[in-house]
Amino acid sequence: MSDKRYIYDLSEGDATMRNLLGGKGAGVAEMSRIGVPVPDAFTVTTTACVETMNLGGQWPEGLAEEINAGLKRLEERTGRTLGGTERPLLVSVRSGAVYSMPGMMDTILNLGISDESVAAVAAESGNERFAWDCYRRFIQMYGEVVEGVPPHAYEDALTELKRNRGVELDTDLSAEDLKELVDTFKAISNEHLGGEWTTDPVEQLHRAVNAVFKSWLNPRAEVYRRANNIPADLGTAVNIMQMVFGNRGDTSATGVCFTRNPSTGDKELYGEFLVNAQGEDVVAGIRTPRPLAEMREVLPEAYDQLIATMKRMEEHYRDMQDMEFTIENGQLFLLQTRNGKRTAAAALKVASDLVDEGLITKEEALLRIEPAQLDQLLHPAIDPKHGRKPIAKGLPASPGAAVGEVVFDADTAAERGGRGEPVVLVRYETTPDDIHGVIVAQGVLTAHGGMTSHAAVVARGMGKPCVAGASGIHIDVKARTLTVGDRVIAEGEVITLDGSTGDVYGEALELIPPRINEDFQRLVTWADEVRQLGVRANADNFEDASKARELGAQGIGLCRTEHMFMAQDRLPAVRRMILAETHASRTEALAEILPMQQQDFEGIFTAMKGLPVTVRLLDPPLHEFLPNLVEQSLLVQKLELTDGDPAELEAARGTLAQVKRLHELNPMLGTRGCRLAMLYPEIPDMQARAIIRAALAVLEREGETVGVEIMIPLVALSKELEVQRGIVERAVKEELEAAGKDLPVTIGTMIELPRAALVADQIAEYADFFSFGTNDLTQTGVGISRDDAENGFLTQYVMDRVLERNPFESIDVDGVGQLVEIGVTKGRAVKQNLKTGVCGEHGGDPDSIEFFQSVGLDYVSCSPYRVPIARFAAAKAVLKQRED
Ligand code: PEP
Ligand code: MG
């Protein structure tokens, strides 16, 4: 055998072969290896899929032969023949990527049933109805999924037959009815496929495998991969498994279970089953499944076997498992196991409990937490004091609260949600085709389906609130209304979902800030023991600073002062200051602003006393402080036309002339950062004084104050920093001397221009610290204006994979990352102990944090609600670094 293989038999795989066999393939192989009952199978590797994609859809040489040989071996092991007239072998064909990925091809069941084998299936099972039921299901699944026949074609025929027979349920149809349905279905397939529908099971198997390959590239899978940062070139494996039947009568069943509650993490029975049903019935929500606890009465032996297997699987994988099972004539088979998707709350509880149970270490527990997912715990919940009555109730499928306008289809949700409008996606049930709408919706409400329905699973994975199976609601997609009793809610009206209770409210409810629970507290403390990066917050008012501190921030890494200039009560003085033509009038305007600035700083310093606070001096886009050019021109015109007050007209003209003089074509690259302070040194002078006075006032009042760090923004030249440092130092010295006090004050700069990074050694001469402003460093390093690009080509670039990630969300390691690394290295070459941090958006992004750890920054600074995420991410970064 050549060293490249495309097929592995069940007995040849194990859990370590996930990259080759996909999660499902490796999972079943591992179960079989440890003696858990699994139907026999073989797996087509991800390599086969990748090579097929690379060959433009052609199979690589030898693949078809290997599949045939794998099939032969499976036939020999089972003593059956695919589609045979005696002891026929039926198989399922399933996709199985390396990472669990909703959105790919639906499973094909019963492949191998045909005109030749159906009689043998009937004879063997002693159940003719069962055989014909399998056959009609197969034609439908194969036609829809592999050959692309529109689903309604078969569904309509089934509905019509039921109507003709006067029955409601599929199960009320007789063997004869189903036989007739098979003929109708075959005719439908022939009609849609121009008579080319193959009835040869081996050919069908090949086509099904190929359809799985193709589904890797389908749009819904692509959307999912993008949302979850799964590389596009991994490919999927294909699992071909002997069928076992949950629809063989009342001692057969099919179901799904979790070894713990995936919403809360509690160690309790969680799952659903359906007697006399086949796999997809449970997830598709066609019949309402029963809670697992009831299985104890109905199928006691299989139940005991299942409970024992659940325990065993959890101990083996040392993690919560999500399992699919089938019971055929009382005999349990596991079809799949994987680490269960869970909410952030459940992730923390499970990790914490597994440590207590001695199954994992604290470090492993930390590695299990997905920091970005914790975001959902940091989101608001419904204020319990609302006193409103829910209009409907469904299952609490994914916790959290969502308020938004009702929309009835995923495209509308994607369009409106993409524009940042809060929408709630309301569907009868969701399918993988809805994924792009779910991603941007605040929450999802379905009328149908259980705790393991598509909507529930996907929403939990994304940390979105979801209420599933709210059977009291009626959705009319055409009329675009949602009706509950006599209340009609039209598209665009606001509702509130409580994914933790299943309640639906017909109005917008107040939300309250999130609370951090015990498990969170426990794990984040472990994270703090491991991490090396400090975690600070970006905050520029008392409330945000207090919140940041509550969430564990070790200081403020960026206090922007622009907002303080923009407040309505200050803008007139700020404008006068900027438009002033003499030093005296500028100083006068600034003197008015100083006490207000001081007051702001006192608030922040009070909240952060005992910790360091980096205050960044004014970084203006100049135009934001000035009257708008067009509006000012119109005002002048209006005054001219209406013969208004001559003094007013003259003043307006004067302002217009100044606005024109200061107007900039590229404000982003204009008089920003320290450049305005270079023109008007009175500004940094005033700010430095306000900072020191505030720090001293807090010291006086509270008995302690903050570590003052004054930061000069957007420096490109070392001379700029030299000059600015001089101005600040002088003001600080004078203020301290006047107060007769001493305070340690450090002065540093932002590194947010490529030139600054490249000459960081020169700049470091004048800096006590560097804080990388990766927002501007990305804008100027990549040459992309964020505000313009995010609504335009940048989104397209990410969709087309010209860029893997939006570089404003996650740092562009190769380019901008290199600038950061150069900046750190050059800066430290001059000052060994130069403190370095980051305060761009990337400071709260787990992947970027991993990078910042690798280049040896001292701290990251992010928005207050991301502080806990950063604490976990920083710990994970250390653990991963140790692993490498
Ligand atoms: C930055 O550029 O990364 C930064 C933090 O500054 P701002 O976002 O205020 O420009
Ligand atoms: Mg900046």
UniProtKB/TrEMBL annotation:
Active site annotation, chain numbering: 454, 839
Reaction catalysis annotation: pyruvate + phosphate + ATP = phosphoenolpyruvate + AMP + diphosphate + H(+)
Domain PEP-utilising enzyme mobile residue range list: 421-502
Keywords: ATP-binding, Kinase, Magnesium, Metal-binding, Nucleotide-binding, Pyruvate, Transferase
Domain PEP-utilising enzyme C-terminal: 518-876
UniProt cross-references to Pfam families, sorted A to Z: PEP-utilizers, PEP-utilizers_C, PPDK_N
Domain Pyruvate phosphate dikinase AMP/ATP-binding residue range list: 56-289, 300-352
Protein EC: 2.7.9.1
GO molecular function: ATP binding; kinase activity; metal ion binding; pyruvate, phosphate dikinase activity
SUPFAM superfamilies named among the record's database cross-references: Glutathione synthetase ATP-binding domain-like (SSF56059), Phosphoenolpyruvate/pyruvate domain (SSF51621), Phosphohistidine domain (SSF52009)
Annotated binding of Mg(2+), by residue: 752, 776
PROSITE patterns: PEP_ENZYMES_PHOS_SITE
Residues noted as binding substrate in the record, renumbered to the chain: 560, 616, 752, 773-776
Entry superkingdom: Bacteria
Cofactor(s), by name: Mg(2+)
Family: Belongs to the PEP-utilizing enzyme family.
Name by which UniProt lists this protein: Pyruvate, phosphate dikinase
